[in-house]
Design goal:
Layout (H helix, E strand, L loop, with lengths): L1 H12 L4 E6 L3 E7 L5 E8 L3 E3 L2 E3 L2 H23 L8 E6 L5 E3 L18 H11 L8 H10 L10 E3 L1 H10 L3 E3 H4 L5 E2 L4 E2 L1 H11 L8 H4 L2 E3 L10 H7 L15 E2 H8 L7 E6 L3 E6 L12 E4 L5 E7 L4 H16 L6 H11 L11 E3 L16 E3 L8 H12 L1 H13 L6 E6 L7 H10 L3 E4 L5 H15 L6 H9 L5 E4 L3 H16 L1 H10 L3
Length: 536
């Protein structure tokens, strides 16, 4: 143990560490890893999106405060554990929620508040672009936000000098480089797998669509430059170092890897970048990503085509809603417990309640729930109304209640995944799960295995999450001395000895989920009526 601590201290002093910071939907997390890819310190900052003037957003003050707080907590942990003040690291990487819209003028002023992936206000633009490109453009993609703003004749459009994602913005702020990783870029605008860059033909089609507007910019000039995993995408500037480290100890000149989206870092953190592998990320939203062997036979509005951080095509099913409603019910149970004079540990609360779902009727006892905090593209809902419904004949108890809320968390995802597996016969060798739900052993895996009817694994590193994933990408950039592919680097160096716990789908759970999803589909009319007719 003493030797390990000595080695770690020396690695920190010598700058043989990599720092990853990811901006998730509810938490900003900083992770410092050593040259063995193990986490040696971390820090975090809790935050929430806001609905302002009809748009889901995070303000710039929270973005910078969260960045600095997460880094500061990580730095302080290093000081406590090792007695060392961080002055340099070997490499840095930034990651964040994909998609959305951040538009800046030539002075660097943000022209409109950051519009996140959660907004479903771009349906007209997304449909027009999908028809034009013959390529699915989801509502949350950056190009859909830009085109919708054009259709709306928003005043800021002629002033645009640069558009990017949240990860791209942080990277630009700290390096001065307008660059983005190919995985994150693939959620802004379609990527050409051959050139590893934006699709030129589609760029020309977009220019033709807006030619009548005669804007002073061209699309290719305002999009960030695309970079591939392993490439250096800039260095920490003097100003960037001061922004990141308020104590002014951190030195400039540290190399940065391309900023990536949370989808890409999730693939890396679960070693799911090879073809026929996949991962599922569970949080406020949920997405499953399968690395494809071939193109899909046609365009599906439920399926995004994005890429791995090294540019391989990926079929992505993304649902805007997952655990928000489940978490709200958990908070209600906590309030009840506290009202009864019982203070309950959060981990125990989740463990006890979620595990009751294992004793439920396979289909959830005829109960029905929609955890829509926001709109949902897959099921065609423009806004959210969380809804729980039961009939007098349903079997209403705690176990079925919890199972139903777990099922519905993956309801929209299930509809999209069925297209890949049943319509397109996409082969999946393995699916890796990561996210907070998998911290409770077994139950999350069993539910997801039932939903996808395929084995689901959780690695010993699954709890590390996307911040660890972007730290690995930063490490890959500076430690890939053998010029290995990203797949081989992860297989042979990072995950060589990592434990992997796999759970196979139970036939009764699979049948129960299929019964639930049919009820879920039929009941969507109820949910749509709640949105259209109820004022809540």
């Amino acid at each position: 143990m003493k030797n390990n601590q000595t080695n770690t201290k020396q690695a920190i002093v010598d700058g043989l560490t990599s720092l990853g910071i990811e901006f998730g939907s509810t938490r900003i997390k900083a992770v410092l890893i050593d040259h063995n890819f193990e986490t040696i310190a971390s820090g975090s900052y809790e935050w929430e999106n806001l609905l302002e003037d009809g748009f889901w957003t995070y303000n710039l003050v929270d973005i910078i405060t969260g960045l600095q707080t997460a880094y500061s907590e990580m730095k302080q942990e290093v000081e406590r554990k090792y007695g060392i003040t961080i002055r340099t690291v070997g490499s840095i990487g930034f990651s964040a929620m994909m998609h959305g819209y951040m538009a800046f003028d030539h002075t660097g002023e943000l022209l409109v508040p950051f519009r996140t992936w959660r907004n479903t206000t771009t349906s007209r633009a997304a449909k027009k672009l999908t028809d034009t490109f013959q390529f699915n453009i989801p509502e949350r993609w950056s190009i859909a936000h830009l085109y919708q703003a054009i259709l709306n004749n928003e005043k800021h459009i002629p002033r645009i000098n640069h558009i990017t994602t949240l990860a791209g913005y942080i990277h630009w702020l700290l390096t001065g480089q307008k660059v983005i990783g190919i995985g994150d870029a693939s959620g802004m605008f379609p990527i050409d797998e051959t050139t590893k860059d934006y699709n030129e033909a589609m760029i020309e089609q977009f220019e033709a669509l807006i030619a009548i507007k005669e804007y002073p910019w061209k699309l290719k000039d305002i999009l960030p430059k695309v970079a591939i995993a392993g490439e250096q995408a800039g260095e920490l500037t003097e100003i960037g170092a001061k922004i990141l480290d308020r104590s002014r100890n951190l030195q400039p000149g540290i190399p940065l890897c391309p900023p990536e989206g949370d989808a890409g870092t999730g693939m890396v953190a679960t070693n799911s970048v090879r073809k026929r592998t996949g991962n599922i990320s569970v949080g406020t939203s949920v997405f499953a990503m399968i690395v494809l062997e071939k193109e899909l036979s046609k365009v599906y509005p439920e399926i995004d085509i994005v890429t791995t951080p090294d540019g391989s095509p990926v079929g992505m099913v993304h649902a805007n809603n997952c655990t928000s409603d489940l978490n709200a019910w958990m908070r209600l149970f906590r309030e009840f417990s506290e009202a009864m004079g019982q203070k309950v540990d959060t981990d125990k609360l989740f463990r006890v309640l979620l595990n009751t779902a294992l004793e439920a009727d396979p289909d959830g006892g005829g109960l029905l729930s929609y955890g829509y905090f926001s709109g949902e593209n897959i099921t065609g809902l423009e806004s959210g109304r969380p809804l729980f419904v039961r009939s007098p004949e349903s079997h209403f108890n705690l176990a079925n209640f919890m199972r139903t809320h777990l099922f519905t968390a993956f309801g929209a995802l299930k509809i999209g995944m069925d297209i890949l597996t049943k319509n397109e016969n996409v082969a999946i060798d393995s699916i890796l799960g990561h996210g907070g739900l998998f911290k409770t052993p077994v139950v999350g895996q069993k539910i997801v295995a039932a939903a996808m009817n395929t084995p689901v694994s959780v690695m010993g590193t699954a709890g590390e999450g996307g911040a660890w994933g972007i730290a690995l990408l930063a490490s890959y950039m500076v430690n890939n001395n053998e010029n290995a592919s990203l797949e081989d680097f992860l297989d042979k160096k990072v995950f060589k000895e990592v434990d992997n716990q796999e759970i196979y789908p139970d036939c009764f759970d699979v049948e129960g989920f299929e019964e639930f999803i049919e009820r879920y589909k039929k009941g969507l009319a109820i949910e749509k009526a709640a949105i259209e007719n109820l004022i809540l």
